Amino acid sequence: MSTETLEFQAEARQLLELMVHSIYSNKDIFLRELISNASDALDKRRLAGLQDESLKADDLRIEIEADPEERTLTVRDNGIGMSRDEVVGLIGTIARSGTAETLRRLKENKESAELIGQFGVGFYSVFMVADKVTLLTRKTGETTGVRWESDGDGTYTVETVEDAPEGTSIRLHLRPADQEDGLYDYTDAAKIREIVKRYSDFISFPVTMGDSTLNSMKALWARPRSEVSDEEYHEFYRHVSHDWSEPLDIIQMRAEGTFEYEALLFLPARAPHDLYQRDARHGLQLYVKRVFILDDSRELLPDHLRFVKGVVDAADLSLNISREILQQDRHIQLIRRRLAKKILASIKELMGKDADKYRTFWREFGPAVKEGLLDPSEDHKAILDIASFASTAGEEPTTLADYIERMPEGQDKIYFMTGDTRAQIENSPHMEAFKAKGYEVLLLTDRVDEIWVEGVREHAGTEFRSIARGEVDLSSDEEASPEQAEAYAPVLTWLNETLDDVKDVRLTTRLTSSPACLVSDDDGLTPALEKMYKAMGQ
Ligand code: ADP
Ligand code: MG
Question: Can you state the subunit structure given in the record (predicted)?
Answer without folding.
Answer: Homodimer.
